[in-house]
Task: structure prediction
Amino acid sequence: MPSPRSGELLAHTGVRPTTGGAPVPDPAGGPAGAAAVDSARLRRRARLRRRITENLTAYGLLCAALVVFALFSWYPIVRGLLLSFQQVDFVNAATWVGLDNFVRLFDDPLFGVAWRNTLLFTALALLLGFAVPFAVAVLLNELRHARAYFRLVIYLPVMLPPVVTALLWKWFYDPGPGLFNGVLGAVGLPGGQWLDSSSTAMLSLVLVSTWANMGSTTLIYLAALQTIPGDLYEAAELDGAGVWRRLWHVTVPQTRFVLLVLLLLQVVATMQVFTEPYVMTGGGPDDSTVTVLLLLYRYAFVYNDFGMASAMSLLLFVALGVFSACYVRLTKSTD
Amino acid sequence: MTEASARTIVSPAQLRTRRGRITYWSVFALALVGFTLAFLFPLYWAVTGAMKSPSELARVPPTLLPDEWHPESYAQAWDQMDLAGYFLNTLVVAGGAWAVQLAVQIPAAFALSKLRPVFGNAVLGLMLLTLMLPASALLVPTYLTVTDVPLVHVNLLNSPAAIWLPAAANAMNIYLLKRFFDQIPAELVEAARIDGASTVRVLVRIILPMSRPILAVVSIFTVVAAWKDFIWPLLVLPDPARQTLSVLLQRVAIDMPLNLLVAGMVLASVPMIALFVVAQRHILAGLAAGSLKG
Result:
């Protein structure tokens, strides 16, 4: 709503409040005798007219956004919900099948495997991707030299297309002429099987994803660390707090909000992991890297079972909704 | 390279002691070596690996420097994979996504911020609601929508519009732009109006020039996201001739000789690295503002 002051201001000055659309009738055109009575009415009318044209202009500017949101966001949300209870393919019309999609999901032996794998990936990715960037950011904040260099190199992997990163690391992981076993061999350590063994494949994917994403997390932490007032550290020091206690009692509480926000974002992002397993392992070996999204992709685009894929999407949404709800409660209770 | 140092966990007095100085410089050296090995060395490995011969790439243990240098791998990769065509495809996808997004999102954010129409808050709320949903939960219904757009019944598969239009429905960008526009004083807008400027003129002449920082951030993140995206182009560009670099590289990875594949990957990354080096300041500012997504 336009502020009443500015609206009145315009009405008084008699400036055309329109934006070049419909012309406003000239207020001076009315009978001169009734001016005192009419001027209030005219002013009200001018203001109303102005509001209407403003609204028209506003919705004119909004219409492109409304169309793309309606077609490619709001409608798909509703449709996705409906699809989870329908059977659909490109030939026949959609038919209602009740909970059949969910029943078939639970019957699929890979369903449980995919969720276990995804939770394992998320847990490992948080262990590494949450703690390591914070530690690195705290370290960087203490260093007083070559800070631009550190910020530059840690962010470089973030700029690489994820497919490039995944293919590069697949080559690095090669147990034969790969980089990692070469390095391990050079320092006298035995090489690993990396992606070729079902016991290390998932951890290998976590390493790639951590390497690729830790740049942005670290730099966000670093920005948060730089806002901590130096007096707090000084006061803590005067109270006899050592380096570790200053870290625990000043740094961590002061960055609590950023830590929580990124924790939530990382849970949501890692639960949707797709590119790494799709490009690097295809879900193998022995289904050890089949993730929720990889299975969803197979249902929809390999078996063309859109109903089952939508049911999976709905479950993913519900699972992540739980995390969001926890997050909201957490921030509320700590305030 | 010393920068004005604010007070941090370690106190300046501690740093000035002999022990403090030794510790500081050893940690610094360790960090320098560690960062270089962890983040630059893999890139070095890729750039030089592309110049090794296929037989050298298969050698165990791998060589640190190529025995013979084959810089012509890059030219070969360029020709063999028709990278010129795929660069163009990716450029059209990313550039178009950028143009369409700004054309849709700037007017919308401006209207919501400065014109404040009735139901404006409800519209913004409905847009922000979409941020709550994990993007992949909408993969299937959005794909089906793109194959047969409601009302107009057009199939957008294999058209870059299949990427541009869903990308334009980005609530985060609208929110960021609106939040920035909100900080521009309403008096400036009113004053221009009194001088007879039209709404569009106010947007173009007053709001946009004052919004360069946020426009830079939104632009960069939009282009980078479009260049990096994989799953959506994989789905909506099934025609091999129309695919983006990421989809191409994944598709040819199995058959392509390793040296050429790595050369292709390096080339596909060059524009992003160059963009980062040029626009580093804006990217870091955008991160600090918490404007990252995905």
About this structure: The mean pLDDT of chain B is 89. Chain B touches chain A through 109 residues (CB under 8 Å). Residues 12-75 of chain B form one domain.
